[in-house]
Amino acid sequence: MKAIRIHNYGGLEVLQYEDAPRPEPQAGEVLVRVHAAGVNPIDWKIREGHMKDFWPHKFPLILGWDASGTVEEVGPGVSQFKIGDEVYSVTDPTRDGAYADYIVVREPELALKPNSLHHIRAAAVPLAALTAWQSLLDTAQLQPGQRVLIHAGSGGVGHFAVQTCKWKGAYVFATASTKNQDSLRELGVDKAIDYTQQLFEDAARNIDVVLDTIGGETQERSWSVLKKDGVLVSLVQPPSEEKAEELGVRAAFVAGHPSGAQLAEIAKIIDSGKLAPIIDRILPLSEARRAHELSQSGHTHGKIVLRISNGNGRT
């Protein structure tokens, strides 16, 4: 099969489009013919070696853990899926990923893809939507009517976070640059904040939940907008527990994790029309270097997806 692999950590040049052995599913695993793979910041962070102490990897490594495709083969003991099922997943980031014609996925990490999405759009969903779900619903315990501030509301996780909040019945503040203000309004944001024109803390007050996708100074300034008993959830750096205690609020650091069960719930919401991915760019697998370059720019609007050409033309 064709795959994008790295043989050592490094810059864009370590991404190699090459032949690789087709994986074989073991007990409890499913072989998926990949039609599309989502690109996420975690992909280039792993490529550059930033996660090597947290997640040990063996080389050569196939990157990319967001996949949408068709079940090709099932291993012993698999009961939920059959050959031909159209599925999507975010898979274990310590194993080989989806920048390839085939990927082996553990059964609990897999779900039937939303019926209303073709594979390219479905591949844009798993990691970002799960991260938003796990941050807002599992960790922050978001309730209808609460006030939420989402930083970078038009970004990969941000645009799913906005829609998840609206589906839950929350009042949403979100930040974005001038060019993405219309996008925030289209997503249903109640109060769109242009961070190039005003300080978010002047526009957002008495906030129940802050979703921090940026870190650094943005995280530090976010404490001031929280109401008592509010919660600051960060996806990029652990917020200060001491600061949270001092202010009478909660702090949490969330890294999204695979969950086929939650992806099945998300698929239902997508099919009901309440949640939809925004695609910034679709590129062929062979252009993974360009995809990483775009992702690292930090200025994408929605998700980047790699189209996998594996002979059957279905995406």
Shape: globular
The amount of beta strand, in percent, is: 25-35%
The whole-angstrom Rg is 19 Å
What is the end-to-end distance?
17 Å
DSSP helix count?
10
Helix content: 25-40%
Task: Give me the strand/helix succession.
Answer: EEEHEEEEEHHEHEHEHEHEHEHEHE
Structural class by sheet pairing and helices: alpha/beta
Largest sheet entry: 7 strands, mixed
Q: Count the strands?
A: 16
Low-confidence stretches: 311-315
**Assembly classification:** single chain
Q: pLDDT average, as an integer?
A: 95
What this model shows, in words?
With 315 residues, this protein is α/β, with parallel strands linked by helices. 27% of the residues lie in helices and 28% in strands. The protein contains ten helices and 16 strands. The protein has helices at residues 41-47, 119-123, 126-139, 156-168, 181-187, 200-203, 216-222, 241-247, 260-271, 288-297, and strands spanning 2-6, 16-19, 29-39, 61-62, 66-74, 86-90, 102-106, 110-112, 147-150, 171-176, 191-194, 207-212, 226-234, 250-253, 279-284, 303-307. Strands 3, 5, 6, 7, 8, 15 and 16 form a seven-stranded mixed sheet that branches. Helix 7 links the parallel strand 12 (207-212) and strand 13. The longest helix is centred in the middle third of the chain and has 14 residues, at 126-139.
Features:
6-stranded parallel beta sheet; alpha/beta; 315 residues; disordered C terminus; 27% helix; 10 helices; 7-stranded mixed beta sheet; 28% strand; 16 strands
Secondary structure: elements and pairs:
Blueprint (H helix, E strand, L loop, with lengths): L1 E5 L9 E4 L9 E11 L1 H7 L13 E2 L3 E9 L11 E5 L11 E5 L3 E3 L6 H5 L2 H14 L7 E4 L5 H13 L2 E6 L4 H7 L3 E4 L5 H4 L3 E6 L3 H7 L3 E9 L6 H7 L2 E4 L6 H12 L7 E6 L3 H10 L5 E5 L8
Parallel strand pairs: 9-10, 9-12, 10-11, 12-13, 13-14, 15-16
Antiparallel strand pairs: 1-2, 1-4, 3-5, 3-7, 3-16, 5-6, 6-8
